[in-house]
């Protein structure tokens, strides 16, 4: 999608600190990290958010979780991390291309704010 920030990051038209890429997914460092590890994992397919995802996207969404787990393993943060979708503006979603937050590397409180 031409007018999407994260589609531009995937295309390399906006710079990012790339962590991982394959034919289905792209991962990069969050510009405003909330923890020592804060990586965004996104599908290359433009999906607006979780509530807009369709059953046909289920495998892709699961795949993004597997990519997150792989990055967490590589970073040695398996003691405790979180994968999070912010869904809708009231939950803090500010970019409307589906993105999975991988947050870890510090103690994480519960419930989240
Ligand atoms: P959310 O609030 O759940 O929609 O998360 C959006 C995240 O995207 C937020 O943590 C900040 C990050 N972000 C926004 N713009 C950019 C950008 O241009 N580059 C990078 N690397 N991250 C961005």
Describe the structure.
The protein has 113 residues and is α+β, with helices and mostly antiparallel strands. It has a single domain, classed as HIT family, subunit A, CATH 3.30.428.10. The chain contains 2 helices and 5 strands. The chain has helices spanning 5-11, 58-75; strands spanning 18-21, 25-29, 37-43, 81-84, 100-104. Strands 1-2-3-5-4 form a 5-stranded antiparallel β-sheet, with helices on one face. The protein starts with a helix and ends in a 9-residue tail after the last strand. 21% of the residues are buried. The model has no long low-confidence stretch (mean pLDDT 97). Bound molecules: 2'-deoxyguanosine-5'-monophosphate (DGP). 2'-deoxyguanosine-5'-monophosphate binds at residues 5, 14, 16, 28-32, 40, 86, 92-95, 99. Residues 5, 14, 16, 28-32, 40, 86, 92-95, 99 line the site of 2'-deoxyguanosine-5'-monophosphate.
Offer a quick outline of the entry.
This protein has helices spanning 5-11, 58-75, and strands at 18-21, 25-29, 37-43, 81-84, 100-104. With 113 residues, the protein is α+β, with helices and mostly antiparallel strands.
Main sheet?
5 strands, antiparallel
Q: Outline, from the CA principal axes?
A: globular
Q: What's the structural domain tally? A: 1
- What is the chain-wise order of helices and strands? HEEEHEE
| List of distinct ligands in this structure | 2'-deoxyguanosine-5'-monophosphate
Helical content band: 10-25%
- Provide the CATH topology: HIT family, subunit A
Whole-number mean pLDDT: 97
């Amino acid at each position: 999608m031409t007018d999407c920030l994260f589609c531009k990051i995937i295309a390399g038209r906006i710079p990012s600190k790339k962590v991982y890429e394959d034919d289905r997914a792209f991962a990069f460092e969050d510009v405003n990290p909330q923890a020592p590890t804060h990586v965004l994992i996104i599908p290359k397919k433009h999906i607006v958010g979780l509530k807009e995802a369709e059953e046909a996207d289920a495998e892709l969404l699961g795949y993004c979780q597997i990519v997150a787990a792989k990055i967490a393993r590589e970073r040695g943060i398996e003691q405790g991390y979180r994968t999070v979708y912010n869904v809708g503006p009231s939950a803090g979603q500010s970019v409307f291309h589906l993105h999975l937050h991988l947050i870890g590397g510090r103690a994480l409180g519960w419930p989240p704010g």
